[in-house]
Design brief:
- The protein is mostly helical and about 150 residues long.
- α1 packs parallel to α4.
- It is elongated, with a radius of gyration of 21 Å.
Length: about 150
């Protein structure tokens, strides 16, 4: 058995590892999942839930960045008025729409995931939630930094 840590970007709440089992024999009664040949399918079923969890974390990052940016834009005064009143700054704060879209897609994916026990897959919903929320969380902090320049 060999293994190494996988270096990841962003979220570091858990470490990820690659583990290889070379010439490793497992007795039939000890097989995870109980059915030979379905390991990849079983693994992919867990990926749906992981994508929804990633989406939820990304939404939290984006929401926090938005709240920080909005607070700063309301607090900072230029030319006698808060910078939040300037169109370029207000456009950046409009990213709240992207965050809300991502949040609603994540709620929908989580709802769809509740039906997995009846055999329904939610990989499409989970993927859309993950994509939109990661985009929103990556975009919002960049916008926040622009407020500070």
């Amino acid at each position: 058995m060999t293994g190494t840590e996988i270096e990841v970007l962003g979220y570091r709440g858990m470490k990820e590892y690659e583990i290889a089992f070379d010439a490793f024999v497992v007795k039939a009664e000890n097989l995870l999942g109980g059915v030979k040949g379905l390991g990849f399918k079983q693994l992919m079923a867990t990926v749906e839930s992981a994508r929804i969890q990633t989406a939820a974390r990304a939404i939290g990052v984006a929401q926090s960045a938005l709240e920080d940016a909005l607070g700063y834009a309301l607090e900072r005064v230029q030319f006698g008025e808060p910078t939040a009143n300037f169109p370029r700054v207000a456009d950046k704060i409009a990213m709240a729409v992207e965050i809300m879209i991502a949040r609603q897609l994540t709620y929908y994916a989580a709802y769809a995931a509740r039906q997995k026990d009846s055999g329904r897959r939610c990989d499409l919903e989970a993927g859309m939630a993950n994509l939109s929320s990661v985009f929103a969380s990556a975009t919002e902090p960049r916008g926040r930094r622009r407020f500070h320049r």
